[in-house]
Write a structure and sequence with these properties.
Length: about 280
């Protein structure tokens, strides 16, 4: 469970990016963070994982006060936080498997990771996650051979390799076509519910948020102006968040089932460190 209490961020310029944010995200809940550009959505996410230092307030994850820790203790706390990026953040010259296994870098020693000698359990988990995101047949492809949707699926698997307690997701569909966007949102939400992960998704697409998430928080000028169920996003509420606009929302019913297949026979080879 994530709890933010009185979190504010004022930059050196004097600009107030976040103003007294207090919220709780329980395990298994997927929360969408919406609001206009400059509302503070990215700042909030980065205050949670301490990429940005809050000016005031407290962030507690799974009982640990993240705002108090430093050095190695901060690195340990960050192991509990998986991050999924808008621009995928893959090492494109590496294989899909190597990119997914990089989610274990905080757990294995430098030389084991450098020599690509990950524990058997890590490789088995990576294969399981690749099956779950529908990429088990692409484990040996380079990152630069993938489509945008496939890269985002690799990013999801990599984040889950950390065995996190919380997922922070920054605009996961901004570079994707509408159908792929819905598939990615569906996948993220299903995985969070399956694994009882709390999640915060920074997203501009209000229709996607309404379709998939459990809860929506709206920010405007750094302050929370809405916190409720997606069904409560009435035109009046959306106007309070974004300003005047025609808030007619289209619906979408596309569906996508990811196939699973076994991959145990490949594990022995990869344990030996000879995967591409």
């Amino acid at each position: 469970m994530l709890t933010m209490t009185g979190v504010s961020k004022r930059y050196d310029t004097g600009d107030l990016a976040l103003n007294d944010i207090t919220l709780t995200v329980p395990a298994g809940q997927v929360m969408a963070l919406i609001g206009p550009s400059g509302a503070g959505k990215s700042t909030l996410i980065r205050c949670v994982n301490r990429l940005i230092e809050p000016s005031a307030g407290k962030v507690v994850l799974d009982g640990d006060d993240i705002t108090r820790v430093r050095g190695s203790a901060l690195r340990l706390s960050r192991r509990k936080i998986g991050m999924i990026f808008q621009n995928y953040a893959l090492v494109e010259r590496l294989s899909v498997m190597e990119n997914v296994l990089s989610g274990r870098l905080a757990y294995v020693g430098f030389w084991r990771s450098y020599l690509r000698r990950y524990p058997r359990a890590d490789i088995q988990q990576a294969f399981h996650l690749l099956e779950r995101v529908g990429l088990e047949s692409m484990f040996d492809k380079r990152g630069d051979e993938l489509s945008g949707g496939q890269k985002q699926r690799v990013g999801i698997a990599r984040a889950l390799m950390q065995n996190p307690k919380l997922l922070l997701v920054d605009e996961p569909t901004a570079s994707l076509d509408p159908k792929t966007s819905r598939q990615i949102m569906r996948l993220i939400c299903e995985l969070c519910r399956e694994q009882k992960l709390a999640a915060i998704i920074n997203i501009h697409d209000v229709a996607l948020a309404q379709q998939f998430v459990d809860r929506v928080v709206g920010l405007r000028a750094g302050s929370m102006v809405f916190d409720g169920h997606p069904s409560e996003l009435s035109p009046a509420v959306l106007t309070s968040i974004y300003g005047e606009e025609d808030w007619s929302v289209p619906t979408d019913t596309d569906n996508n089932d990811d196939d699973d297949s076994g991959t145990d026979k490949l594990v022995d080879t990869l344990v030996a460190g000879s995967h591409p």
